[in-house]
């Protein structure tokens, strides 16, 4: 239930950005390859050196420890990182037996086309699209209050893309989460967002 506010956030390739996303609002961000979209999300998540400050409601990022900030402002990177052998090891209560009693987790898995036995799968066998969908579920299990999504549907076919869009929509509504979504897809912007920005010459420009 908090807005996400960027105050003069800048990095090596970008002029400082001021942007406020209301609680429950979804804002799109696009721009040419290499224009600095991912670096901007990483700066907001405090993963790279940068200037400026970010706020979640009235709480500043610098007032919170980095792990707490990153749990509350969840980043879905374009390429997810997996550190354990099996999918379920990356999720709280992520073994198939416990997950049965976790209605939300099993619902999310079903919504994205997985049975509970996916939790026993080895990460090494996951396709790119499976990784992407499971990384989203992993992120949501941490109950983030705001989302930073880096091309969340880039590797998906239209049916899976629609399912992911729906899940993010439902989560945004139920958690009243502010969402900043990097996407190259103008049709996706038309479907989902009321406000969109593009990075041009290192600056954030509002799109009509
Ligand atoms: N660690 C780094 N050191 C130096 N340059 C970097 C580093 N990370 C990214 N860059 C450069 O910064 C620029 C912006 O990168 P970024 O990943 O933000 O682009 P992007 O807009 O997300 O592009 P794409 O749409 O292709 O994903 C690129 O030119 C990239 O090569």
Automatic annotation (TrEMBL):
InterPro entries tied to this protein: AAA+_ATPase, ABC_transporter-like_ATP-bd, P-loop_NTPase
Gene Ontology terms for molecular function: ATP binding; ATP hydrolysis activity
Keyword entries, A-Z: ATP-binding, Nucleotide-binding
UniProt domain ABC transporter: residue ranges: 4-208
PROSITE patterns documented for this protein: ABC_TRANSPORTER_2
UniProt key word ATP-binding: yes
Gene3D superfamilies associated with the record: P-loop containing nucleotide triphosphate hydrolases (3.40.50.300)
Domain of life the protein comes from: Bacteria
Protein name: ATP-binding cassette domain-containing protein
Organism: Thiorhodococcus mannitoliphagus
Species classification: Bacteria, Pseudomonadati, Pseudomonadota, Gammaproteobacteria, Chromatiales
């Amino acid at each position: 239930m908090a807005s996400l506010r960027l105050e003069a956030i800048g990095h090596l390739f970008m002029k400082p950005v001021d942007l406020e996303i209301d609680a429950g609002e979804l804002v799109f961000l696009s721009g040419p390859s290499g224009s600095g979209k991912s670096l901007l999300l990483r700066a907001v998540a405090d993963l790279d050196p940068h200037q400026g400050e970010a706020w979640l409601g009235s709480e500043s990022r610098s007032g919170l420890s980095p792990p707490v900030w990153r749990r509350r402002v969840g980043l879905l990177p374009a390429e997810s990182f997996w550190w354990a052998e099996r999918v379920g090891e990356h999720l709280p209560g992520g073994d198939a037996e416990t997950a049965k009693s976790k209605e939300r987790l099993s619902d999310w898995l079903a919504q994205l086309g997985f049975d509970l036995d996916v939790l026993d799968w080895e990460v090494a066998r996951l396709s790119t699209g499976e990784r992407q969908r499971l990384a989203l579920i992993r992120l949501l299990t941490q109950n983030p209050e705001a989302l930073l999504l880096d091309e969340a549907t880039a590797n998906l076919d239209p049916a899976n893309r629609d399912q992911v869009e729906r899940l993010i929509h439902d989560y945004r509504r139920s958690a009243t989460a502010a969402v900043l979504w990097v996407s190259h897809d103008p049709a996706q912007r038309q479907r989902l967002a009321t406000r969109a920005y593009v990075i041009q010459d290192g600056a954030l420009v509002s799109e009509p």
